[in-house]
Amino acid sequence: MPPVFNSEKCVRCGKCVKDCPAYILALDKKTDKTPHIIEEYKFECWHCGNCRISCPSDAISFEFPLYTLV
Amino acid sequence: MNKIQKEWGTLYETDMLILGTGASGVGAALKASEKGCEAIMIGKGTLESSGSLGGGNDHFMAALGTDEPHDDKETFINFYMKSAYGYKREQLSQWYDAFKPCLAVLDEVGTEFKPKEGGGRFRSVGFGQPGAWWLHIVNGRTIKRNLAKKIRKLPHIHVLDDIVITKLFAENNHITGCMGFNVLTGETVAVSCKVAINCLGWHAQRAGNNSTGNPFNCWFTPFTTGSYFSLAYEVGAAIINADISGRTTMLPKGWGAPGMNGINNMGGHELNALGDRFMGKYDPMWENGKRRNQIMGTEQEQLEGYGPPFYMDMRHLNKEDVHHLQYVLMPADKETYLDYCAARGIDFHTTPLEVEIGEIALSGMLLADERMETTVKGLFAGCNFTSFSGAMCGGFIAANHAADDAKTASQGILDDAVISAHKAKDMAPLENQKSTGLSYMEFEGPIRQVMDYYAGFRRNMPGMELALKRLDLITAYKDKVKAKNLHDLMRLREGFDLLELCKIHLFACLQRKETGRGMYKLSDYPNLDPNLDKGLAVQLKDGAPNCFWIEKTA
Question: Which of B56, B354, B467, B485 is the most buried (most CB within 10 A)?
Fold first, then answer.
């Protein structure tokens, strides 16, 4: 579910995590290959796109939840 | 600015406290810096992405005094004096005067506006207004970041990101400061001030659900839930129009997003399930009339079985306008708009956009004088005007007066014992790990359950009385909540703000015994009462809500 991170493009700068107004992204630079959305809070994503606006490497795309498509 | 380490956390001392870092906070910071007033901006999120402006905006409203029709100050003032209670001509005059300096800043930070053929900026009509006041922003998705870059370099301005504000302080009816906690570290932070601007956002979400049932999938940012009102109300500020300012919009089906203003004012047609364009029955300006009429009209069609589905049809517009709408305006208003379109196979050129009536968002204004000062001395209203323009200009003009007052006002004194006591209360949910404790969703879900059931577009007085009692029951559960981390603690706080605003809204609605000014119909008072052509204010007195009417001024 949104956002989806491309691990090949991601430079692990953490800007997406910092600028997410929902505080639902995480990145542990020691262990994580890419940031991730915290599973239990993914329903709080408003699809505002702030993570993507902040991303310097075009590593973020969006996958829409089923409830937005019906 | 002074920074003092305390046993309970960190105390900052400043002249001006700017509560909230969205568009209104930005406007306030610009003016404070210009006037050489030391200010701290404090709020949730980071300045680069916080507030409704964070993910973008596609319009800036401005009457500019050109020779175009209805572009003058008097017409602008008269429109808003008629459209809402509680405004004063002097306030609106200042809003008008702030258009040009705020636009100059937007130009300076690289905002691109759609050009008009033959020169100048293109503007369109919206919301039943007489003039073409809406400038179209082409690169709206980066506005907040560009403004933030400027704000962070401004002299006299300090930004405290990631702070959830939990309380304002006032002494002898004069603002003295605020406190809150850092959502990343948990540190308690308090700020003492001489004056404060409330820029926390007047558009409160999560009071109801749309068809998706996800309260975070809403019209505007779901992280604004009414602290603009609840925190100010608690220290004695009067709130006006809490009864009639509830509002909503048409949403792209299944997806919480703004943007209908662009579609309406570019000439989109709303169709019902039978393919009939019906808005002429409900507003003389059809889709581009008052948003209230569009919602109430669509709701009526739905009740009569002519929808769902409903559609916004743009196929008749010229190709350039349709392209501008889908590929420029919409993504400027919400960055992921084109991803949504791709996921649903939407192309404005070839297929009407399915839409639905969105959830009701609650709103209102802080009762303020000509200088935007609220009924609490030293506390100024930064979010009493509509849209991005109203937010930025509102903060700008409030700070103008606040900066003047800061020259003579005394520094607020905050009591360590009081802060410590509130800190213990704020943090208590982190200590509660009982299985019977309520998570933030278990606490705030019932608020929506009550509001959706008893306080929708069709209501009645007994239902709202019952709703208020049910909200009182929810209030009794405030000390039974639990948070497993700081994220949950932040959401609980948002739920508390939401609960308070819902109670204020219902209390006010129960006083207004008529139908026709708010975004709901009362079955027991189905007609407009000409004697109620006035505003209603709610203020806390001796711990209980108290109301009084505000007569309309010319």
Answer: B56
